[in-house]
Inverse folding.
């Protein structure tokens, strides 16, 4: 009897795991389809602008210093672009915007990369989205 209960429990765990994996894969596919071909240019502009208090690092072409009004405009437009994306796909859209910044301007200089990633992580919070509040980028993507 104990063996049957253990087998039933193991089968239940396997089914739940399979269902979770299938849901995750389906969500990933839906996100790719939803953001495919979209550029999120305002997000790129917002993320690539250095804050006025960005430190002493040397400015390069890829990272432009923006005045607060311009940054606010790009942030607002970026949030509007992200509002048109399902909430479970927003971090993937932000990740795509960072990838496109890298593809257009090459690799970031020291310090710039961390600033862009930090802004990217907190972008949902800056947009006042309830979910997700923050994006987690587990791998530095190139």
């Amino acid at each position: 009897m104990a063996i049957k209960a253990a087998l039933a429990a193991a089968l239940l765990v396997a089914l739940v795991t399979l269902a979770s994996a299938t849901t995750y894969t389906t969500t990933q596919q839906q996100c790719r389809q939803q953001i495919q071909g979209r550029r999120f240019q305002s997000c790129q502009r917002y993320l690539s602008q250095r804050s006025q208090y960005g430190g002493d690092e040397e400015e390069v072409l890829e990272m432009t210093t923006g005045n607060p009004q311009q940054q606010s405009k790009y942030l607002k437009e970026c949030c509007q672009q992200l509002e048109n994306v399902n909430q479970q796909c927003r971090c993937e859209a932000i990740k795509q915007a960072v990838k496109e910044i890298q593809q257009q301007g090459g690799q970031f200089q020291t310090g710039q990369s961390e600033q862009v990633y930090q802004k990217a992580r907190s972008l949902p919070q800056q947009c006042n989205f309830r979910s997700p509040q923050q994006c987690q980028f587990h791998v530095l993507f190139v």
User: Anything to note?
Assistant: Confidence is low (pLDDT under 50) at residues 18-24, 52-64. The chain has five helices and two strands. The helical segments are 2-35, 41-48, 68-83, 90-105, 112-126.
